[in-house]
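User: Quick sanity check before I run a bigger batch. Here is a single chain. Can you write out its predicted 3D structure?
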Amino acid sequence: MFKLQNRHEVRYPDSEEISNLTLSFFPLPHNMKAHRVLISCARLRHDVFCINNNWEPTTPDGLEVDQYDSSSHHVALTAKFHGESRQTETVLAYLRLVDGTKSSLESEHPIVPMLATQAQIPSDIREKIAQGKSLEISRLCVSLKFNNRMTNTGGNTNIKPSNLNLIMAWRLCNRLLPDVESFVAILEPALCKQMERQGLKIARIGEPINYKGQRVPVEIDMFENAALVEAMGEHFSSLLTGTIGVQTYENTATSPVHHIRL
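Assistant: Done. Predicted structure follows.
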């Protein structure tokens, strides 16, 4: 899991400061500048993937974007602080779900990032991706200080940053994308082992590859893991009871926004 080392002087939550926590879904935005929260997500991505890890080139505007953004469903967890404007939100966690059915027919790129690597993905998984039954989890980011907050809240919590990303993805699909059956991803072996120790069922769908370090292509079945992920979500929500509510954005003309309770 990639943790943001704060480069942009962004504030992060102390329990007494948070007024609202929002999990918002941006379906297939025209670009990452379609909403102020998406801009913040692109900035967080730039810090994590371009500055901290040097996996992507830096950009003059400090935003990390690519050709898969317009064919993705974006999920952002944001916090609003007491005393701040309604328009002010800090992105704590982000991911996108790349939808292979939304790729442009004119695109020269594979329909999801996984297929652009040397990973040998089985034909049945490729078919599920092409049908939109499997979405690729991509660009996972959780802020370092929010990770520390999760660790320190409630004492012996087992909620990890990767759990939060999975909760976000699962809740989105369960509520708004009912045809999705599984997620695919290319993960670090250590992250796979961590998830398995917590009881998640992860299917390795190919041999390890060297892609910005060693990675393993995996599939995470939504139905097999539903009870465990739901329990994680309830536990995560209980840790924040009494300090965090749910904030609702106004819809914009450029990008419809849905709000999902954790």
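Strands lie at 3-4, 18-27, 72-81, 90-98, 134-143, 182-187, 202-204, 209-210, 214-221, 258-259.

User: Great, the batch can go ahead then.
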